[in-house]
Amino acid sequence: MDIVLVTTVIASLFLVIGAAEPLAARLRLPYSVILAVLGILIGAGAIFFLRTNLTDALNPVAEAILGLPIRSNVFLYVFLPTLLFQATLGMNLRRMLDDWVPILVLAVVAVVVATLSVGYALSWTSALPLAACLLIGAIVSTTDPSAVVSIFRSISAPRRLARIIEGESLLNDAAAIALFGLFMGFVMLGTSDPSLGDALGRFPVLIAGGALTGWVAARIAIWIMALFARHELALISISVALPYLAYIGAEQSVGASGVIAVVAAGLTLNLAGPGRLPPQAWANLREVWNLLAHWAGALIFILAALLIPRLLGEVRAGDLVLVGVVILAAIAARVAILFVMLPLLTLVRVSPLVDTRYRVAILWGGLRGAVTLALALAVTESFLVPAEIKRVVGILATGFTLFTLMVQGTTLRTVIGWLGLDRLSPIDQALSRQVVAVALQTVREDVARTTENYELSHDIVRSEAKRFGERLEASVKMAEDSADLLDRDRIALGLIALAGHERDTILDRVRERTISARMAEQVLSDADRLIEGARTGGRNGYGRAARRSVAYGRGFRAAGMLHSRLGWSAPLVRMTADRFELLLAQRLILRDLGAFIDGRIRRIHGRRVADLLQELLSRRIETVETALEGLRLQYPGYAEELERRFIRRTALRLEEREYAAMREDGLIGAEVYMALVEDLSARRAGAEERPRLDIALQRSDLVRQFPLLADLDDTALERLSPALQPRYVNAGDIVIRRDSAAKSVFFIASGAVELQSAGQTWRLGRGEMFGQMAILMQKPRRAEVRAIAPSTLLTLDEERFRRLLHKSETLREAVRASAKKRGIAPDALLSDERQRA
């Protein structure tokens, strides 16, 4: 085939891709539908010109189009890894993890339900073997959410809903292709009635093997990329190789799912990459992958559509009936998932409540696309699949895909409008009015400065200022006098605006490198939760999201248990250091929000709402300060090291800004500027590195600073330090149960506990101890002790405590004070202890 002609055809396809997006916007149709229509027209036109005698001039072009190397392996090994890898890189995984249960259940269970529904429906209505029917079910079970997600974004649907749909689609691609591989094996072996239990039993093995392969490949790639951190092009090149090597390694070497391997590799790089790679390199890497995925997605769609006329070339009347069966069975499976399973997940509180209208839109937006066509093409190319099965698989998969694209895709916006989802809710309308009012106030200030700078005519300025002032006054009045809004809605609007400004401030600090790339995603996720919480739950939702941003999660509890019970401190060290940095970043951001409330919020929503928001902000600042102070007490000196690092990074940012300004003013040339920037980059690499947190060392320092042990010499403290075992407890955890045996004494290194005994309550904080009374009285515990804050306790066994009590007068005084508080004679207690010794 003429290479020039093939190159011309491929270049022309890129022109088609470039024209498809504006055409889709003009026609208000999904982009994938336009690509499919153009691909079908090109393929049908090529066949028409080859079979007609109208002209022979276009025959070479038609032959080049039909002779393109469009094979299933091209889709599966070239395009599919690109699409899946970019999708995982573009995800906000911290937010996805909030909904991992509904995403996983909807993705995996939906694929299995759709496969079984379509497979058994075809088995009952056709002469095809069950294995072939289940194979068709697996092929048509994967969905393309691009159309419905893009429309949801345009109508301001809840972001959480869009995230669940995106996560479901990514994982159901992987699950469907894994099932496809299973049933394809049965068909090629000639197994007419496969054991469903055996097939589903092998399914987890494929997934686990693929996930492990992808994780290992990504960890190796990240290690290599970290070595080349200063060479941006090298980093991007390694990232391009990663998904393909993971896919081929899983498929060819391990015998697992290559799709799962690509997804696992992308997720691993997404989680670990921002903390190991330079921020600008990471941002550019994602931009490159966005472009690659755009091209790959468009090419896979248009090239697959070129095959549709050929796949439908041998259609028969009976095939149309089977296409109808596939359509009904697939829709029925989707209905079961959306209207039975999703409400059940909501009932058990693992999935958000999804409005019925949104579920209808998701149902009608379940389009199938290039992945379905690529899998069908893989069947038609196999020499081990019987000819009749190949023909039917190609026709049914293609027919069903055409139905979803041409019927559902073209009517999706109409359905959205019929459901009323394209109309803003009252609170969204009020929010839009608020945005207009705030924007116009900013514009007025900027225009005033501009007119002063350029000394424009006073008459013109006065005339335009009057017109602009009238519009501004009307906008502010509309924002203030929304009669259809309750007070709680006004507060919610203010909180949404405040959370939005917080997110913008975070982005500014990330660009300035005041906040490190390691923390950027987490603080942005916290800001997104604040926005969603305010939108869905108003003041209460905002408060829950704010408390969650500083709470100790389950991961922290697990890390503490690993450290205290197994001596594995790495997870706890990393999470504690992350918490230090997160709290410092939050404190930095929150202190900048007061001016926004006193400025724009007060002007739009009035004094009462502004005062309430200031109160909520003060509480958040106090909570963050308290949490940060707890960490300072627990690990003295580490917060200061982080603050020094922050100052150094800020100084480097300001230094870089000065160099750029001198370069723009012509004070220094390009060579000098590049030399200065290179030196600055080298120093910045050192400033970006976070100081190491040594838990063992910090515990030793803590013991030395403990007030109850102040009169012990250094030798005694060194012998005592290893004997004090740390124990980490979260708020609400029970430390000592009533009537339990007295075996140890607890010293509070940080945090606070509450003791309850005989109807009385005591609270103890840092530097105090508890549990000593039961040991000295040789009786079971009479008090129940519960942590009222995340706390670090140091435990000492009974024998060492008794020896320590004889050495330390300060400790004996503490015992006397504790005994007096509880109405116990301290001298008699210590006298008994001396006699015991």
UniProtKB/TrEMBL annotation:
<dbReference type="InterPro" id="IPR018490">
    <property type="entry name" value="cNMP-bd_dom_sf"/>
</dbReference>
<keyword id="KW-0915">Sodium</keyword>
<keyword id="KW-0812">Transmembrane</keyword>
<dbReference type="Pfam" id="PF00027">
    <property type="entry name" value="cNMP_binding"/>
</dbReference>
<feature type="transmembrane region" description="Helical">
    <location>
        <begin position="31"/>
        <end position="54"/>
    </location>
</feature>
<feature type="transmembrane region" description="Helical">
    <location>
        <begin position="170"/>
        <end position="191"/>
    </location>
</feature>
<keyword id="KW-0472">Membrane</keyword>
<feature type="transmembrane region" description="Helical">
    <location>
        <begin position="360"/>
        <end position="380"/>
    </location>
</feature>
<keyword id="KW-1003">Cell membrane</keyword>
<keyword id="KW-1133">Transmembrane helix</keyword>
<keyword id="KW-0739">Sodium transport</keyword>
<dbReference type="InterPro" id="IPR014710">
    <property type="entry name" value="RmlC-like_jellyroll"/>
</dbReference>
<dbReference type="Pfam" id="PF00999">
    <property type="entry name" value="Na_H_Exchanger"/>
</dbReference>
<feature type="transmembrane region" description="Helical">
    <location>
        <begin position="128"/>
        <end position="149"/>
    </location>
</feature>
<feature type="transmembrane region" description="Helical">
    <location>
        <begin position="6"/>
        <end position="24"/>
    </location>
</feature>
<feature type="transmembrane region" description="Helical">
    <location>
        <begin position="289"/>
        <end position="308"/>
    </location>
</feature>
<feature type="domain" description="Cyclic nucleotide-binding">
    <location>
        <begin position="708"/>
        <end position="822"/>
    </location>
</feature>
<dbReference type="InterPro" id="IPR000595">
    <property type="entry name" value="cNMP-bd_dom"/>
</dbReference>
<feature type="transmembrane region" description="Helical">
    <location>
        <begin position="203"/>
        <end position="226"/>
    </location>
</feature>
<dbReference type="InterPro" id="IPR006153">
    <property type="entry name" value="Cation/H_exchanger_TM"/>
</dbReference>
<keyword id="KW-0813">Transport</keyword>
<feature type="transmembrane region" description="Helical">
    <location>
        <begin position="256"/>
        <end position="277"/>
    </location>
</feature>
<feature type="transmembrane region" description="Helical">
    <location>
        <begin position="320"/>
        <end position="348"/>
    </location>
</feature>
<feature type="transmembrane region" description="Helical">
    <location>
        <begin position="392"/>
        <end position="416"/>
    </location>
</feature>
<keyword id="KW-0406">Ion transport</keyword>
<protein>
    <submittedName>
        <fullName>Cation:proton antiporter</fullName>
    </submittedName>
</protein>
<feature type="transmembrane region" description="Helical">
    <location>
        <begin position="74"/>
        <end position="93"/>
    </location>
</feature>
<dbReference type="InterPro" id="IPR018422">
    <property type="entry name" value="Cation/H_exchanger_CPA1"/>
</dbReference>
<feature type="transmembrane region" description="Helical">
    <location>
        <begin position="100"/>
        <end position="122"/>
    </location>
</feature>
